[in-house]
Amino acid sequence: MITASHLNKSFGSTHAVEDLSISIAPGEIYGLVGPDGAGKTTTLRLLCGALRPDSGQAHITGFDVLRQTEQARSQIGYLAQRFSLYEELTVLENLRFFAEVRGLSAADWQPRCMEILRFVGLADFTKRRAGQLSGGMKQKLGLAAALVHRPKVLLLDEPTTGVDPVTRQDFWQLIIRLVTPSPLPPLPPSPSPAERERGVAARPGRGGEGSVAVLVTTPYMDEATRCTRVGFLRGGKLLEEGTPEELRTLLTGRILEVRGQPLSLLRQVIRTDPDVEDVQMFGDRLHLRVVKDQAQAVITRLTTQIPASGGQITQIRPTQPQLEDVFISLLES
Questions:
Q1: Which of helix, strand or coil describes residue 158?
Q2: CA-to-CA dists, residue 289 to 231, 279, 318, angstroms
Q3: Closest Cα to residue 321, out of 273, 253, 219, 270?
Q4: Rounded distance between C-alpha atoms, residue 298 and residue 285, angstroms
Q5: Separation of alpha carbons 215 and 81, rounded Å
Q6: CATH 3.30.70.100, the chain: domain bounds
Q7: Where do the CATH 3.40.50.300 domains begin and end in the chain?
Q8: How far apart are CA 220 and CA 66, in angstroms?
Q9: What is the C-alpha to C-alpha distance for residues 175 and 183, in angstroms, rounded to an integer?
Q10: In sequence order, what are the beta bridge partners of 289?
Q11: Which residues pair with 8 in a beta bridge?
Q12: How far, in Å, CA of 156 to CA of 78, rounded?
């Protein structure tokens, strides 16, 4: 559904995207993660044709983004980081506008819009102005607008940034439902502009929401764990990609969990160990990344050094790596 091959994009001396190749199949949720400035948003803009690459190719459902731009865009639903709909229009007016822009007839747009509003939980807010919605409701309206023409590809740019945890959970439940079989009936494909001029009606269509491919950028590692596959970007380069479980195995046997008091002292002592590569706070405990095959040696040293420095260890043990551990390790590599 989405393929990119050796994409490159620079702005002056800054390499925003460098030799990027990815492929995303129907039914997949691909999470693109990385620090600010890693090239995530630029990647989405290249895939939807908003930017031209310096080199490389991108295809959406088989359409070449450079040579068949409009055909490719017709397959895409895009949700930007910031709310970009019309705040002075109501919820339903916004959806009607985007439905008609996408070529839905008067007979089609209203039932389709109501189906989508029920899907995202906004069916009771059709007359409310978009500018009066909460942040989470605005993002749901943005998703509804992206879905109104039943796209095969969804490009979501940090869709849950700045919303509360409950709304984040609700939003991800919607995304997961989009890539699994859905009760929403298929929308008949709209005729082309030339066909509309000749009065050709919409043609019978096939398929459902389950054939959607989703590419989502996110700064949250707990969201990345929900994805089918995850790609780590840094400086425009794809460092690693794989399922969350595959990525966690990169650090198997190299993460230790330490509990004790005071954490500030423990952290200071641990940082002096030559085989400890990194120490991070994880709530009321510390996560240590150690040199490969040196976990037991580190445990032995710390159980002596920390009490000698006035600290107390209540627990020190190997633990399963988290995606945060992998992310930090890749950024420091």
A1: coil
A2: 21, 7, 10
A3: 253
A4: 17
A5: 13
A6: 251-332
A7: 2-246
A8: 31
A9: 14
A10: 255, 278
A11: 55
A12: 6
Give the three-class secondary structure for 51: coil
Give the separation between CA 286 and CA 256, rounded to whole angstroms. Answer: 8
How far is the C-alpha of 244 from the C-alpha of 236, rounded, in Å?
A: 21
The length of the chain in residues reads 333
Q: What is the pLDDT along the chain (333 residues), one digit of tens a residue?
A: 999 999 999 999 999 999 999 999 999 999 999 988 899 999 999 999 999 999 999 999 999 999 999 999 999 999 988 888 899 999 999 999 988 888 888 788 888 888 889 988 899 999 999 999 988 899 899 999 998 888 999 999 998 887 788 888 888 988 888 887 554 444 444 444 444 333 333 333 333 445 799 999 998 888 999 999 999 999 999 999 999 999 999 999 999 999 999 999 999 999 999 999 999 988 899 999 999 999 999 999 999 999 999 999 999 999 999 999 999 999 887
Please name the helix (run of DSSP H) or strand (run of DSSP E) that holds residue 111, with its range, or none.
Answer: helix 106-120
Give CA–CA dist 227/234, Å, rounded: 19
Closest CA to 325 of 244, 269, 243: 244
Question: DSSP secondary structure string, 263-288?
Answer: HHHHHHHHHT-TTEEEEEEETTEEEE
Q: Kindly give, in sequence order, each residue whose CB lies less than 8 Å from that of residue 126, ignoring residues fewer than 6 positions away.
A: 90, 91, 92, 114, 117
CA pair distance 156, 167, nearest whole angstrom? 16
Cα torsion through 204, 209, 214, 217, rounded to 10: 120
CB 245 within 8 A of CB 227: no
The CATH architecture of the domain made up of 2-246 is 3-Layer(aba) Sandwich (3.40)
* Identity of the amino acid at 173: Q
Closest by CA to 289, choosing from 333, 261, 325, 245, is 325
Pick the CATH number of 251-332 from 3.40.630.10, 3.30.70.100, 2.60.120.460, 3.40.50.300: 3.30.70.100
CA neighbours closer than 13 Å in the CB half-sphere of residue 309 = 20
| 144 burial type by CB count under 10 A (0-12 exposed, 13-18 middle, 19+ buried) | buried
